Amino acid sequence: MTATLPALSRALKLQNRAARVGFDWPAPEEVLSKIEEEMAEVRAELAAGGHAERIAGEIGDLLFAVVNLARHLKVDPEGALRHANGKFERRFRAIESRLAGAGKPVGTASLDEMEQAWTEVKRSETRE
Asked: What is the domain extent for residue 118?
């Protein structure tokens, strides 16, 4: 297996290989439990004032578990992340546009103002 693959694709290949020999969770619900466990480990590391390398390791474990969930649900993790990136980019551009239209460039807006604009953009997308 090559290490030159994108990390999400490599995680998927590794998990498929392990699953072929029976090293796999039987159901997506168990993968969700693993994701919750990994989240708890990230939180614990943050609460302990964790070293950057340990936090990075825990986040890597979390991402690996999320790829496993995608695999169980037959979702391409690269495609899902690409879609989420596009959605975020579209919404963020809309926030920038709304704030600029209100005379408030995004760099000068408060987090609350940006969050409100985000909520409005998201709401308008669900109405379309």
From this structure: 82-127
